[in-house]
Amino acid sequence: MRFLFPPPPILCFFIGVVMYVLPPIGKYSKFFYAIGFCILLSILVAVMSLWQFYRANTSIDPQRLDKTTRLVTSGIFQITRNPMYLSLLLILVAWALWLGHLLAWSGIIAFVWLMNRFQISREEFYLEKKFGDEYRRYKSKVRRWI
After folding, report:
1. Phi, psi of 101 (to 5 degrees)
2. How does it sit in the membrane (predicted)?
3. Structural domain boundaries in the chain
4. Cα(first)–Cα(last) distance of the chain, in Å?
């Protein structure tokens, strides 16, 4: 089962490019500490999620859900159901802070909307079909993003 939607890292990159070329409307000062914090947090969340997938011996490919062998609910997955997407979102937040204008934040909104609509909703449908009540219980306890 493959999706036609671009892989999330590619989508993140393209949205970052669009954020860069947007006109700098509503300029503000750069918050270097916040930028650094977002980048470090993004790396931490990504590493923790990859580690959990590795430990569970299951696929990390969001384009090939049929390769999913286990439902991962431990570690960072007790806080968010989509830590890898959260790490990409944090990179875009850092990028918006670096660009220093309000219009750049439209990329954040676009990323969340596109991910919810075209990637996460399909994943949730598939996981619910594959893991049934186990996934529904997990979904009721842990939020989609944070």
Report:
1. -145, 150
2. Multi-pass membrane protein
3. 31-59+70-141
4. 27
